[in-house]
Amino acid sequence: MRQTPRKGLPRPVPAAPTIPAMDNIDIKLLRTLLVLMSERSVSRTADRLDVSQPAVSHALARLRILFDDPLLLRSRAGMVPTDRASEIEARVRRLLAEYDALAHRPQPFDPSVSERHFVLSAPEYAEHLLMPPIFRHLRAHAPNIRVEVRAPDPERAYELLESGEVDLRIAWLRKPAQSLRSMQLFQDRIVCIADRDHPALDGTLSLADFLRYPHARPWGMGRNMSGRVIDEAVELLGKKLAPPFLVQNFLTIPYTITGSDLLAVLPLVLARAFAAQQPIQILEVPLRLPRMRYGAYWHERSHKDVGHKWLRSVVLQAAQGLQAPPAAI
To answer: Which positions fall inside the HTH lysR-type domain (predicted)?
Structure first.
């Protein structure tokens, strides 16, 4: 006898792919992930978070289970993120930025007793000018506050401010993104320096000599604003600079050019500081160059934070203490 099919019971639907139980996740765990992605090292992450290395290793193990992915793999060069980890990182940064904005509550802030940790991003030049007065102020009025200065990362500048990994970015002042705030700190201009006894120069510099003599430049200078300004001005004339001598940082330049026919271009305030220490002459650059306008940038979500306001005031005070560059040398 043929049996009639049974009706009324739907076929079971296959289970959807599982996803991490985000409602049970620890926010600290996500913050640990971001630091791991930044440092690519368990030991350095532990140092930054002020926890033990086993605690960071345990957190990484939990994260691997949570996201069902190795996330970070060991290599000779350190830990390397997986593709999944890179995808997660951007989403976690946005998530934590939203969480911080939602959970923010105004807290009383007393710099004399506060133990907050602020992270600034600044080029060597700005660090050289601003950090000494800032650190002196901290030691006198806020001895427990820690300030960490990091090298600029232009490609991730907005991301670092948005995530809170950097509190304040000091850089050339331009119109910021919509969710960023900014203020002008100081102005300067670009000049050229040479040995006081340079064989061809005596207080003036022609375009021909500027192009003919090699320049001592910090490695990567063509990627920062002052380097790009020089390179673009020369390119507009259809000219080329002589192949440069590359050094690691600005601070070795006055020693590099002394006793040689090398030239160097750098901000006037820095040039005057070097001229007080080394036998060098300061010369006008024979190019049409814009003035340097340096400013500070921060994310909108930090704008009303009392501690952040205090930090901005300290940085601004240090900038206002700099001597304004004259119109002519």
So the answer is: 25-82
